[in-house]
Amino acid sequence: MRALPVAARLYVGLVALGAATAILLGVFLGPITEVDLGTLLLLAILFVIAESIATMVDSGKTGISPASAASLAAVVLVGPVGAAIVGIASGLVIRRQNLVKRLFNGAQFVIAGYASGTVFQLLGGRMGVPEPEMFPWILLPFTGAVLTFSLCNTLLMAGLMWSLGELRLKRPRHMRWRPLATLELSSIGYAMLGLFIAAIWGAVGPFAVLLVLLPLFIARWAFDQYVFQQRAHEATLATLCQAVETKDYYTRGHCMRVAKAAAMIAEELGMSAERVQTMRYAGMLHDIGKLGVPTKILQKAGKLTEEEYAAIQLHPMRGYEIVREIDFLDEALAGILHHHERIDGGGYPKGLAGEDIPEAARLVSVADVFDCLTSTRSYRKAWSTEAAIAELRRCAGTQFDPRMVEALVRAVEREGWEVPDLVEPVEDACEPCTAQPVGASEAAPETVPTGAAQTAADGDTQTDTNLTVGVVEETTG
Amino acid sequence: MMNSAPTVASHIPQRARHGRQWRAVGWTRPLLIGAALVSTAVSLLWTAVSGFEQPRVALAFGVLVALGEFARITLPGGREAAPIATASAMSYAFLFTIIGDPVSLPSPQVVAVVAVGMGLGELPHILVGRHPQWGDLARRFLNIAVTTLLFRPLIGHIDLDGPLWWLSLLLMAAIVVVVWLADSVAAAAIRADRMRTRFGVTLRDEMRAQVAIGMAVGASAILMALSVHVMGLTTLLVFTAPLLVTQVAFRRFAQIRRTYLQTVRALSRVTEVGGYVEAGHSRRVSRLAQGIGRELGMSESTLLELEYAALMHDIGQLSLRDPIPSGATVLASPREQRSIAELGAAIIRETGVLDGVAELVRRQCEPYLGDGEAGPPPLGSRIIKVANAFDDLVGGSTDQERVDAVLQRLRMDTGHEYDPVVVEALATVLQRPDFDWRSG
């Protein structure tokens, strides 16, 4: 366990102090005697159970919990002080968590519970099981309470992040609003259910919580399955891409690095999260059709004949044929098919020019060549990032879309670029799958002659040699 | 462009196959659809004759059922479900009071309202040509009919304000469970007919597939009936919210499962494009393996694993420097076969999530009794071995004599190489008129 910064400790202390003050204030000033102790106890137990199950079902990534429903039910049933006391129970939740975190969580629920309880009563809500005639007007004070609850939690959490130094003020364009909004909305949704737990509490008591939360737990379970499958899918995709590269020692990791560069450009251009993901896929799969090109052509050291060059030019089409049935690739398909087009129209397979080239393809093309230049090939050392950028800029407007080149330059300047190390293949830290290409030569020495791939120039740059005319000759010659 | 010719050619047999499939369906599905139609007609007629009670309530529930049916989802395994429609229809059947006022609700009216609601919800889908799975639709409807018939006669005994309130709650829960069980049986019977597999296996599959969403629907149905009892009709909408979340979660789950399969199917073709194996080999092996697996009574989850393994069984060839002639692994030396299997398994294991699949791929070329201390390979591996050999030897040929000759050759090797049970299962599967492993 790493030590918390002093600022964070101080902050947690302050929040805990605030929580304690709220409870003391409530107990001494408020009408604590009216609170039904049995209900309070049951609510606290249910709160702990709900939160514990939630942590067990969910790996704790989402940060929202159905326990807020129990908390809001407490606001209605046992008032602000009751809600605050129920909030303390969150410290008892069964999960692996250190004391400081427990303290902070508990204090957070206490303060949020107390504040929202107060708002509920200020807006005219009455403590106790809501009577039928109170509907639907009770929705007004309750909505106020829910908003307060949500606001308190967000503010306290933001404060913690800030004191931990994890929250940087970003330019609004780079802020990911959509996930944040989804999170807020779903937590408000959970909290709204609190009212209805409270309402049927009169009829079925604690079963109310079970009935309300059961579908939610199942939903979470399903979401968890979904997230797991999604990760599995990502990992499988990445592994299969890398498997295609295993033959050639020098292009190992190329697909994952291009995927990373493509995502960086896409983010820099302010694309939505989904499109960034699509661009990543395009980068990852752009060379999958290379497999259809005979190895001896790809690895040929000398100048390519007309026919061999034609064979290489087929690879975007082959790649497209392989992956076109995958629905989610969407725009990425165009990126794969056209990633060797040039802005001046001199590329292949279609010879498109300028804006006719799909955006995804213009993007992947820059990412592809950038990684080619900055990684070592059998016949030359890797270029420095600066040299590669200078080269990309030189070819902007003829081969590349200048907008993409500049986006890449900005992204690399901000985030840096890890140049792959040949001795120990670099794994991209951003990838969910840290899979390494399979060591074919170790596994089956009799079928795969070790180092065969290293003897010849690699096909990847071979193709680019023809595109970035003069550049490669300069370095090799 | 280069694929257009085979696509056109494969179009015709595919349509013919559909026709045959229709005939292959057993009696369960028509029976259920017939029962649904009859009960709809009877309930509508009865309601028309004897009049309508509390139309406002009926309208509220009817609209909810229609909306839920409109937003139906497809769960993994091609199962259609409409959680919101089912839950609201069930809660209509469970309705006992509205804020204390007793509800007089004849059973046929419940059934009629639900039938109309479901029909209206399906109508837009049908109009744009997205037909529902009629068997599933009939099941959804009959679930409600059964719930109504079980619960409405007991309505006089429901009392949530007395000391025995928990008994009423228990009754509702029990009915939910009974209906869920009956539904699983019906679904399993339909599936067993359609998939040509054993009823016991499909029953377990169905129960596993439906238990989570069934619990969510059941809990929500009871909850909605209770909330109307306490707070009136306005709260109905609120309690569909948790179900909506559940539905979204399941929908995404089903989607990613489909995507995953698509990706593996597509990427399994890299070996074909690379010239390592014949075009379509992976998919043919996968289709054969699944047919055999179903015949041998494999469960849905094992079948999925088998499908992945069959699709990727040759992926190890990617690590070979040069493709083996014509890509037929059955003709390669045992040593070579072994190393392809090992390499393939190593690649698949890299994903970190497909260990079971990797194991099937790793042991795909072992003789059926095993050749080491590890014992016989898993059934999936033995199936892939037979399916792969069969496809390699038959090639793309449509000649029946060749198929028979290949089967004969496999049978001759059952002493050591091929599992005789698997080979016989293959022979059975191949005899079916509706089994086409070559196209699609």
Automatic annotation (TrEMBL), chain B:
Gene3D superfamilies: Hypothetical protein af1432. Keywords: Lipoprotein, Membrane, Transmembrane, Transmembrane helix. The keyword Membrane applies. Pfam families: HD_5. The chain crosses the membrane at residues 30-49, 55-75, 82-99, 111-129, 141-158, 164-190, 211-230. The keyword Hydrolase does not apply. Signal peptide: none annotated. This is Lipoprotein. It comes from Thermobifida fusca TM51.
